[in-house]
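README: folding subset

This subset contains proteins for which both the sequence and a predicted structure token string are available. Records are stored as plain text. Below is the entry for Precorrin-4 C(11)-methyltransferase (249 residues), shown exactly as it appears on disk.
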Amino acid sequence: MTVYFIGAGPGAADLITVRGARTLAACGVCLYAGSLVPRELLAECPPGARLVDTAQLDLDEITAELLRAHQEGHDVARLHSGDPSVFSAVAEQMRRLDAAGVPYEVVPGVPAFAAAAASLKRELTVPTVGQTVILTRVAHRATAMPDGEDLATLGRSGALIVLHLAARYADRVVGELLPHYGADCPAAVVAYASRPEELIIRGTLDDIAGKIKDAGVLRTAVIMVGRTLGAEQFRDSHLYSPERERHTC
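--- output ---
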């Protein structure tokens, strides 16, 4: 058997990849985070599949479910919201499976920041304005941030910053980024990206924290701060430039 870590996408059930949906439909066991993964996706599971909501399970309990499926010879779909490569807690599960000798594969998904950018109708990398995107979070009761990855340090780059799990700390975010980006720097928040209840908030570093509070956004949101969010006057990319030399075969 194999454990498949599948990126379920940002929220909309139809944003799972074709490979992800096909893999899900072939697994006799599905572990999913009930608070984050859309219930509609479970309809893709085969009839009779064992469904396990991991929302209230700890790592030991999740591992036990994976090992049980392995012993019973069932392939497992381990559904994670967004993409498994960022903020998914997949690494610690894979480490447990490595130690137990259980094979696994990773099926990528659409990350929340990509869905948020799509909702904002923005390219996050704009020629001559910004070519770097930083994905990060803020330290709070969860795992501490490593040295040198605090917002004040990352903000010195001036790059577009995408913050996950930070809506309730908006004042702190603004306070640490303001000296580097300026009060007029464009900022945006997308809550529940791609879902029917999606909420988009646009503003600047000067007013975004207040707007987040007024909207009552506390979780399941992505905060973006950077000049590319408001870029209008910029040079066309070299990719499609008529001056670019093109070779025909």
